[in-house]
Specification:
CATH topology: Rossmann fold
Number of domains: 1
Order of helices and strands: EHEHHHHEHEHHEH
Strand order of the largest sheet: 2-3-1-4-5
CATH architecture: 3-Layer(aba) Sandwich
Helix content: 40-55%
CATH superfamily: P-loop containing nucleotide triphosphate hydrolases
Largest sheet: 5 strands, parallel
Strand content: 5-15%
Radius of gyration: 17 Å
Distance between the termini: 12 Å
CATH class: Alpha Beta
Number of strands: 5
Structural class: alpha/beta
Bound molecules: cytidine-5'-monophosphate
Length: 223
Amino acid sequence: MKPFVIALDGPAAAGKGTLAKRLATHYGFAHLDTGALYRAVGLAVLKAGQDPSDPNAAAAAAQALDPATLQDPELRSAAAGDASSKVAAIPGVRAALFDFQRRFAASPPGPDGRSCSGSVLDGRDIGTVICPDAPVKIFVTASAEARAGRRLKELQARGEKAIYARVLEDIRARDARDAARADAPMKPADDAVHLDTSDLDIDQVFDRARLLVDRALAAQRGA
Ligand code: C5P
């Protein structure tokens, strides 16, 4: 049977990452934070002293991406976040990262080198481009203000100096860039379920998502 896929898409700091980790743990699925791929490319370009908007530099960094860099704590910095949405608009970057994501979903890596029976991928284009056949697609949103408040806490916890107004501005700029790009723009798949997390805590978000996944798993077993 084909591995099960949960596709989580939505804007920055909407709560996709936390939800993805909880779902992956609950179902014993592999998790891929696809934003980390774009952050790693953006950070590599910055570290090389190049411009993240330069198509040649960014595509070359994507082709040379070392999966070991996906664990770098610097990926969560504001600078890496900003660079990531610039490199993400470059088609050569998206093409270079496409196969990695597809392979992950087709053969989700599990412990001891064995495959898991499913995966959770979170990003912007999972339900539309990477896994358009995913049996569960959730578009996770929250107001820009709620998201900026969460991102501010995350940055402060990392010891970065950050102010709310600036974080809100960055979130809005990144939303606009991600939604406006020509190649794989951020948008809900036609068959995605929308989940607004502005006024929900993580347990409530998890419970709603779990209902959708349980239903889809039961449908697959019954098919
Ligand atoms: O989710 P996160 O904020 O870590 O993503 C960083 C950036 O990577 C996003 O702003 C977006 O530009 C890009 N991205 C993307 N497609 C994905 C995941 C992330 O374009 N599937």
